[in-house]
Amino acid sequence: MTGNLGWKSAAAWLAALALGTPAAHAAKPTYTIIDVPGAIATQPQSVNASSTVSGFYQYDKHMKQFEAGFLRTADGTFTTFKPQGSVITYPRSINSAGVIAGYWFDKDGTAHGFTRSTSGSIISLDISGSVGTIIYGINDAGTIAGFYDAPDHFHTHGFLRDANGTFTTFDVPNAPGTSPVGINSSGAVTGQYVDRNNVRRGFVRAADGTIATFDPPGSKETIPIAINDSGFVAGHFGQGLCCHGFHAYHGFVRSPDGTIVTFDPPGAHSAQVSGIDSDGNVSGFYLAHNTYLTGKHGFLRTPDGAIKKFDPPGSADTVVLGASSNGIIIGDYSDDTTGHAYLRQ
Predict the structure, then answer these.
(1) Bridge-partner residues for 298, per DSSP?
(2) pLDDT tens readout for residues 204-259
(3) Using alpha carbons only, what angle is made at residue 35 by residues 30 and 40, rounded to the nearest 5 degrees?
(4) What is the C-alpha separation between 246 and 39, in angstroms, rounded?
(5) CA distance 170 to 243
(6) How far apart are the two ends of the chain, measured CA to CA in Å?
(7) What is the C-alpha to C-alpha distance for residues 124 and 218, in angstroms, rounded to an integer?
(8) Distance CA 116, CA 296 (A)
């Protein structure tokens, strides 16, 4: 309901989801450009089932570039915002009510979490004693999931905050770093942790606090992205360097019983998953063979394993960045002249 978290790396974290219902699959999808007016670039990050989109955008001020948050309702109305004192604002998740959660950076580069209510009220959140707080997810109950930096700057810890303001902190056992990135309606959380060899691996924390760790077969780097309300986790994993020194990634889906299925879109040499919807449809984007930086395409994988690619009309480079529980996809693409944010439904 996503080290150095700048514009490019923040966009890479996060991620996007799938196309939802059987009816949606049967109909030909429509694409709507959702660029923030006057923005240099628009990065949608989350969308709810009502087609309300949140994300961040770049703008110029006194010859300097800044990032601020935006909200776009289904009728196309934009509202921009940023917490007081923010230099960079990264909204990360929006729930069905339209409450937004994310994080922002102050002039000293310190990260703070925030929530924005449907009335526009913004509350900044910091874990007591932390030196940086990052929020990545919020569910329909208003529970947020994120992580914070310890004062030594070498350890991150996971946390939950319920709608009443109660914080719960947690760690994957024996892990120097725990980073939740997604939360479902029951309060189950997924994310990644760093082991003592500085390798990223996956975890799921059940609502009762039980933690299970996992890796797809052959993984040297596991990056969970999202967890749906049935407890299926989607993400991608790496097996080392590939063509021209780039990391090559492969998609995976982990079932609640721990079974992991891996996949690659046809013709892909690297694929990144962006999420999974309530029906188990997985979406993301991939690089085709013989391409390395541009030439990306969106993909949709249905629960039976069938994979189809998609691109907005005129796109030469498609990225998927988020989607709703019922499969409304958001992302950005480049044509021959410029880039645009899009909504696919």
Answers:
(1) 285, 310
(2) 999 999 999 999 999 999 999 999 999 999 999 998 766 555 678 999 999 999 99
(3) 145
(4) 30
(5) 38
(6) 18
(7) 40
(8) 33
Q: What count of other Cβ atoms lies within 10 Å of the Cβ of residue 294?
A: 9
**In terms of Cα–Cα distance, which of 308, 306, 305, 286 is closest to 297?**
286
The model's pLDDT over 67-114, given as tens digits with 9 standing for 90+, comes to 999 999 999 999 999 999 999 999 999 999 999 999 999 999 999 999
Residue 249 is which amino acid? Y
| pLDDT of 14 | 34
Q: Which amino acid is at 122?
A: I
Question: Is domain 7-344 in CATH 3.40.350.10, yes or no?
Answer: no
- The length of the chain in residues reads 345
Closest C-alpha to 191, from 155, 146, 129 = 146
